[in-house]
Amino acid sequence: MQIPLQIIFRGIPPSEAVEANIREKAAKLEQFNSHIMSCRVAVEADHQHSHQGNLYHVRIDITTPQKELVVSREHHDKHAHEDVYVAVRDAFRAARRQLEDYSRIIRGEVKTHDLQGNGVVARLIPEEDHGFIEANEDGHELYFHRNSVRGKGFDALEVGSKVRYVEEEADPGPQASSVYP
Fold first, then answer.
1. Are 120 and 162 in contact (CB under 8 A)?
2. What are 140-154's pLDDT values in tens digits?
3. Residue 87 burial by CB count (10 A; 0-12/13-18/19+): exposed, middle or buried?
4. Helix (H/G/I), strand (E/B), else coil: 108
5. 67 FRET partner, CA 20 to 30 A, in 34, 60, 89, 131?
6. In this structure, are 54 and 93 located in the same domain?
7. Where is the CSD domain (predicted)?
């Protein structure tokens, strides 16, 4: 980490043992992503439970060059979190899963083709720099702009051209944010 680990205790006195446990778990996070710039951990006790023990909340903020990941473990009904070590363990497990998922995305191991639809160019209106795609799944039409077309570009498209696209909701209706001939 470029910035030293920060540990904050709220509503409970600082504990060297808990801090050592957090430092050990934070060091292991770098195995899942070596580009962690900073990590801040806040441990807080919820004093609202007078008839039972305190529940501990753990929040972990991890900063990487491209993204900030936040894990907040607040389990008001989970009696296991009456033990601060269990709350810390669960929060770091969630942080590890988020880092693993994020690292897979960065490495390009997560396929995006499931997010893409297939269709054909239904209409082109070159003078207005847009067109419409008819989706193969259900036949609905969606708008696309000249700037959304990848590869050889808008001018290479013809009515009937097969395309893949990434659909997003827009006003007044669905549109293709990326079109791949």
1. yes
2. 888 999 988 988 889
3. buried
4. coil
5. 89
6. yes
7. 116-181
